[in-house]
Amino acid sequence: MKILVVDDKQENLDSASTQLAEHELTIVSSYRAAEKLLDERNEFDVLLTDLMLLDGPGGVGSGEDEMGSGIWLALVAATRGVKWIGVLTDSTRHSGWEARAAVTAVGVKNLDGRIQPIPIRIQRSKMLVCTAETDGMLDMPGRTKNWARLLERLLLLNPVV
């Protein structure tokens, strides 16, 4: 599978490289680089992205403060025909409104108060937004993102044809 992975933390990019080595990977560390690849190549089967990135659409972002632009990148990917889209965040305790909205808007709370991700269909794409610490997608002991588990959950969703 052709997979585009986006995260601004090197340890998460390294874990993606290791965990997804059997796939054809393209790994970038910014929204702008990912958007450019989606515009130019438009050949990816899967997008796996962090929710919080240092830059965003339209040149937004100082490179110092993270914002919830991963959700916007997911929408861009859906309009470019990417079949499976996974947005993974480290925490449910982000301070930005867009991050809190993205995490809570795409899930339903269980009886124990945890947010359970539900699949979203956007055009011909299937998308999941997950929280690494509560959805079992934190790779121990390094506490890096478990991209392979996210991919596994995504592929359980039937692609829209």
Please characterize this protein's 3D structure.
This protein is of the alpha/beta class and 161 residues long. It has one domain: Rossmann fold, CATH 3.40.50. It is built from five helices and ten strands, in the order βαβαβαβαββββββα. The strands form three sheets. A six-stranded mixed β-sheet has the order 2-1-3-4-8-7, sandwiched between helices. α3 links the parallel β3 and β4 (84-89). α2 packs parallel to α3. The mean pLDDT is 78.
- Count the E strands: 10
Quick check: average pLDDT?
78
Largest sheet: 6 strands, mixed
Q: From the 3D coordinates, which CATH architecture would you assign?
A: 3-Layer(aba) Sandwich
Q: Let me know the CATH homologous superfamily.
A: Response regulator
Unreliable residue stretches: none
> How many DSSP H or I helices?
5
How far apart lie the N and C ends?
17 Å
Radius of gyration of CA atoms, rounded to a whole number: 14 Å
Q: How many structural domains does the protein architecture include?
A: 1
What would you call the structural class?
A: alpha/beta
Q: Quote the CATH topology.
A: Rossmann fold
The arrangement of helices and strands along the chain is EHEHEHEHEEEEEEH
The strand line-up of the biggest sheet is 2-1-3-4-8-7
CATH class: Alpha Beta
Helix content: 25-40%
Q: Which band does the percent of strand residues land in? A: 25-35%
Shape: globular
